[in-house]
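Lab notebook, bench 4. Still working through the backlog of constructs that have no structural model yet. Next entry is a single chain of 450 residues. Request: give me the structure tokens for it.
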Amino acid sequence: MSPRAAQIPLFFCLLLFAHTADAQTAKEVILLDSKAQQTELEWISSPSSGWEEISGLDENYTPIRTYQVCQVLEPNQNNWLRTNWISKSNAQRIFVELKFTLRDCNSLPGVLGTCKETFNLYYYETDYDSGRNMRENQYVKIDTIAADESFTQGDLGERKMKLNTEVREIGPLSKKGFYLAFQDVGACIALVSVKVYYKKCWTIIENLAVFPDTVTGSEFSSLVEVRGTCVSNAEEEADNSPKMHCSAEGEWLVPIGKCICRAGYQQKGDTCEPCGRGFYKSSSQDLQCSRCPAHSFSDREGSSRCDCEDGYYRAYSDPSYIACTRPPSAPQNLIYNINQTTVSLEWSPPADNGGRNDVTYRVICKRCSWEQGECVPCGNPVGYVPQQSGLIDTYITIVDLLAHANYTFEVEAVNGVSDLSRSQRLFAAVSITTGQAGKYILSWYNLHGD
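Model written out:
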């Protein structure tokens, strides 16, 4: 039996106790995993008497395919093993993980000077699959691979498995794919598994922004800057666009900026949910939805404002969080004093200010005919002291009236929503005739008019 043939059962026994390859981590995209393939790998071996593909079982008794070589009795070995063509996808930096066992040369009799304890790893970039043709001078050496632990005949007897794991990097790559090649120069080795992968930062939502799958950069120290896209119903914060950086290890780092839920929506986890009925959010700068203020409502989800109830209004200058209000009632206790062609009026504030603190007063002067009782605005030269409208105090003096004429004075309380009201005006009114003896007369009443 040839030395090579004698070694095959040896490695087959080792494979019975081989550990499975590490599971794919969240940062890896697998391009090749020899242990995941249970059919023949059919890699290229040159010469054909070198590396040999065999079947084995892992510790879970799952069939695996592997390669071994043990040409240790003859010097100047040059045994090559080449993988099939591997598409690199959009990766620039590739990782190669090798799991292997290696025989201690000192445990093999008669091989002093011919036995080695290392092998070489190569790669060759190409845009297409060149078939089964292989030219050694096209391949670039990645590294010489040595075992941290080698096994002996005694380890075999005790069924001790000494599995080595080595990881190497390739890159940056510029072509569509590549081959890997393994050169044996006289070692007794079993290549248990080969895993080829690249790293990426997987899709993540951070600060309400979606950052898509991103392949790591070509250099170990490189950071790839990625701009995020706001989730549904969110918008970028002003002058603070969301950005993250994908590290060479496939980790998202250095978050900058953020998205915020737009008006009518509030944050819940990684989403923006609409405000419920009876709630609102008027600006994206607000964090949470708020309950509608008094005398207002929202009858749909996702409201950015609350509408006022019938009879209630919101002034144009009122912020959205202010309760809706209404016009005040009429002033109370209107009294007057006549001094020839001058009339002084005094009154008390309305019983209801409409829920506002911006109440002022205005006075309408009308001159009425003796016969039909029709009234027209006073016009010039009638004067008002201190002024006709925008009164803060509850009194006014009206001067330069005509003598022996009939007048009606309407005193109305107004606030910030009075001009928005569609209902009739509420005012206190008094009618007088000039030229009569001056005295205080308590004569007030509320009128409803146009």
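Notes after review: Helices lie at 3-15, 153-157. The longest strand covers residues 188-201. Flag for follow-up if needed.
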